[in-house]
Amino acid sequence: MTVTETSATALHDDAVRTLEGWRTADAGQDRLRRDYLAHLAGHPDGLFRACLPAHITASALVVDPASGRVLLTLHPKVGIWLQMGGHCEPGDPDLAAAALREATEESGIPDLTLLTADGAPTPVMLDRHQVRCTGKDRPENTHLDVQYVALARPGAEALISEESLDLRWFGYDSLPELTDDSVRALVARARELTR
């Protein structure tokens, strides 16, 4: 087994452990959790872009709780304001690290930390959505997104990357019109958990 295969297996095993250990009182979220686990059981490569028609992705909503604001990116492919996130990479040691890497790269904020439960980073929500991550002229595929909350220090300043059309802080109660219900639900959950 190559180093890449070993790290991909470790990432897959971590995703299974993370989802098996994650509990929610919400029946819809629990159904998604079980669907994600079934996906991983059937696809050893289920965390990578090449796994079609669906693959696990990792994202993180960057939150500055002291200021009551969230950082959103205007996604160039989707055209709406979203949390930071994207595809897992073979070098990611675990799912939480993939989410933190994406949040750091896309926000330009170097010292983010993920929200934890019992001392370990934990997802806060799951979201399944259709995208065309393989290209505009290709069929849609499904992202099985595992969502975390990344905490920014008070007053943190973001730095836009080439992965965004725009990057802005928004108050909890003043989210942009060009966002979707999944982002609004994630912001509400993050607000509740960081009070």
Automatic annotation (TrEMBL):
<dbReference type="InterPro" id="IPR000086">
    <property type="entry name" value="NUDIX_hydrolase_dom"/>
</dbReference>
<protein>
    <submittedName>
        <fullName>NUDIX hydrolase</fullName>
    </submittedName>
</protein>
<dbReference type="InterPro" id="IPR015797">
    <property type="entry name" value="NUDIX_hydrolase-like_dom_sf"/>
</dbReference>
<dbReference type="GO" id="GO:0016787">
    <property type="term" value="F:hydrolase activity"/>
</dbReference>
<feature type="domain" description="Nudix hydrolase">
    <location>
        <begin position="53"/>
        <end position="192"/>
    </location>
</feature>
<dbReference type="Pfam" id="PF00293">
    <property type="entry name" value="NUDIX"/>
</dbReference>
<keyword id="KW-0378">Hydrolase</keyword>
